[in-house]
Amino acid sequence: MRLSILCQFNRIANLKRAVRRVASVPGNFILSHPATPQPQPLDWARIRVVFAAVAVTLFLASLGQTVPTTALTTIVGELGGLDQITWVITAYLLAATVGAPVFGKLGDLFGRKGVLQVGILVFLCGSVLCALAPSIWVLVAGRAVQGFGGGGLIVVSMAAIADVLPARQRGRFQGILGSVFGLSTVVGPLAGGFIVQHFAWEWIFLLNLPLGLAVLGILTVALEKSPRRERAKLDYTGAAMLALLLSLAVIIANLGGVVLPWGSPLTILMLCGMAVALAGFILAERRASEPLLPLKLFTLNNFVVSNLVGLITGVAMFSTITFVPFFMQVVKGVSPAASGVYVFPMMLGLVTTSAIAGRIMSITGRYRILPVWSTLLLAVGMILMATAGPDTPNPLIAVYMLMAGIGIGPVMSVGITAIQNSVPFSMVGVGTASANMFRLIGGSLGTAAYGAVFAAGLTRTLGTVLPDTNPRALSAQQIAAMEPETQALVIEGIAQALHPVFWASAVLACLASAVALLMVEHPLEDQLPAARPAE
Fold first, then answer.
1. Which SS3 state, helix, strand or coil, does residue 386 take?
2. Do 443 and 318 meet the contact criterion of CB atoms below 8 Å apart?
3. I want to staple 153 with a disulfide (CB 3.0 to 4.6 A). Which of 74, 119, 309, 332 is the partner?
4. What are φ and ψ of residue 25, in 5° steps?
5. pLDDT digit string (tens) for 131-155?
6. Distance (Å, whole) CA 50 – CA 156
7. 256 beta partners
8. Run of H or E residues at 174
């Protein structure tokens, strides 16, 4: 019995030695234990060059969003009335909203470099059209062309980072890109106010030409040409349906209940058109071989949560950028150049907290809780702005704006990183586009809706003060020429008309904080997708 057991042990030992000998022979790795893949070393020299090109491109595109804000009163005073002030911003945001997914998909199909080059050319064509505009509506058309190219530039430049960096490192660089966005948002209003105060407003758009051509040269040298996917086909039907849907939504938000009654036949027709466009978009995305915005992405928790939070904060961000310079010029009586200074605290907070959030993600891999708390601080800043009036000290308004910026910053870097970490790598461009698209949807719809709320508030607060004047057609020059008593009443009425805008943003910021709690914190990868082991 003992001899039989010893023989069995001997056979097992011999079998183990044989397995080790076979596993040690090259080519017989099927019997060996699978080795843990080592992360591929990153080419930091190339990453720095790509990042510099991307940062400059993002700076150009985001500059186009904000540079006209401090010049709006001068522009509409020359080309149109006060009630048309939001169309110059809304047209850009709407076109950028449509351009974001289109250019994002083109980047996935044909490579980032060529798509960025086309986007710059479209942006510059729109800038020329704006500079030559003889009327407000030609200017709005030029802003739409400019926005279509600018929205694509923002999306594709951010997606290019995902091509060269793993998710864990992406957070830090996306935070820096958020800082670049914030810097351009500071420089834009300051530059716009300075130009309109010392030169003709047309130079706001003409200065894009040398900057855009310089960026085009940098991209041509810095970025490598990506391999083109064979038999790639763009979803034209989906793009058309999305453009129609968003356009009708913005028009209804701007005109509904103010210019057009909600029960009017035209309003009802546009609402029906929205329903048809939405159904057509869903049907097109289901049938398309390369859908513009794949519907299966909406089954991903972090995709939905991040985009919803981005949409809500987009309302607060762009409405603040649009209305605070106007508030400072008309209500507080500061110059166009000085009014841009009051956007600086907001962007300082945005830049700082976006970079800090990116650093936290890179070091800890944690990100879920950041937008939860930051959006609550945004709500506080908006509540304080809703209490501001002609007698509010200017330094306090700067503090309120700083709080708003601190609240927005983490949303930008966390949202893009969370989306890129949850979507398939082949859809990184579309995923990045969605983050910007929904933020721009919030900005365009919010600015349009707030413009309507502001216009209705002007009629309510100034109807008895100026019975023979359409308050929505007032210009800053007309207000400055009024008698002191009437001027004081008008300024107070304008301040009161702006308060509902900030109260609404405060409520939406609280909603964004609640939605951010639903985010699921997936681990951030330390490897590029190509280096990940096959499942």
1. coil
2. yes
3. 119
4. -80, 130
5. 888 877 888 888 889 988 888 887 7
6. 12
7. 260
8. helix 167-198
Q: What percent of the residues of the chain are helix, what percent strand, and what percent coil, each to the nearest 5?
A: 80, 0, 20
Residues 217 and 241 in one domain: no
**Burial class (CB within 10 angstroms; exposed 0-12, middle 13-18, buried 19+) of 15:** exposed
Q: Based on the domain organization, do 178 and 203 belong to the same domain? A: yes
pLDDT of residue 527: 55
Q: Dig out the tokens for 513 from the structure.
A: 């904080």
Model confidence over 321-354: pLDDT tens digits? Answer: 778 877 887 778 787 767 767 777 887 888 788 8
* Domain extent for 280: 235-291
CATH number of the domain within which 310 lies: 1.20.1250.20
pLDDT in tens, 494-514: 888 888 888 999 999 999 999
pLDDT of 18 higher than 70: no
Report, as an integer, the average pLDDT of 33-41.
48
Contact present, 433 and 101 (Cβ < 8 Å): yes
**Per-residue pLDDT at 250:** 72
Taking Cα atoms as reference points, which of 377, 390, 407, 353 lies closest to residue 174? Answer: 353
Q: What are the structure tokens assigned to 100, written together?
A: 């974001």
Tokens matching residue 288: 């398309």
Note whether 78 and 139 are within 8 A (CB). Answer: no
Cβ contact 222:53 at 8 Å: yes
For tokens 């969370």, the residue is 418
Q: Is the pTM of this model over 0.85?
A: no
Question: Which tokens is 474 given?
Answer: 């007032």
526 DSSP assignment: S
- Rounded Cα gap, residues 501 and 288, in angstroms: 40
- Quick one: pLDDT at residue 106? 80
